[in-house]
Amino acid sequence: MDALASRLRLAVVRLNRRLRGQHGAEAAVTLTQLSAMASLHRHGPMTPGELAACEHVQPPSMTRVVAALAEQGFVERSPHPSDGRQTVVTLTEAGRGYVDAEVSARERWLDAQLAQLTADERNVLSRAVQIIDRIAGH
After folding, report:
1. For the chain, what percent of residues have pLDDT higher than 90?
2. Which residue range(s) make up the domain with 31?
3. Chain segment 93-105, per-residue pLDDT in tens
4. Which of 80, 85, 117, 132 gives the lowest tally of CB atoms within 10 Å of its CB?
């Protein structure tokens, strides 16, 4: 089994690296910043602490990420509705557009790769996606 685990890990790492290399817009943000924006896109507005927890980073690190994204106009901070000590981070229209462009570029690349496979190979991958999602806890 350990040979399968090693091969699967390497394949996932390589695929992830190739996907990260596909850009829909000029790379104006770091991968950490893009990941934070993608979380906001997926989950909606949240406090920097909630975003840090979602991204599995320390709150001071997320504070720097949010500041950089706000400076670029990709997120905006507003007062928390019930806790004056906190802010809520929201993805701006420019931020949503950036995330959408990145996702679209990666999916176009992956679609082109999948189109080169046989129908049987695509069916195997379809079943594998379900298993990988289950392993990942989704």
Report:
1. 75
2. 22-136
3. 999 999 999 989 9
4. 85
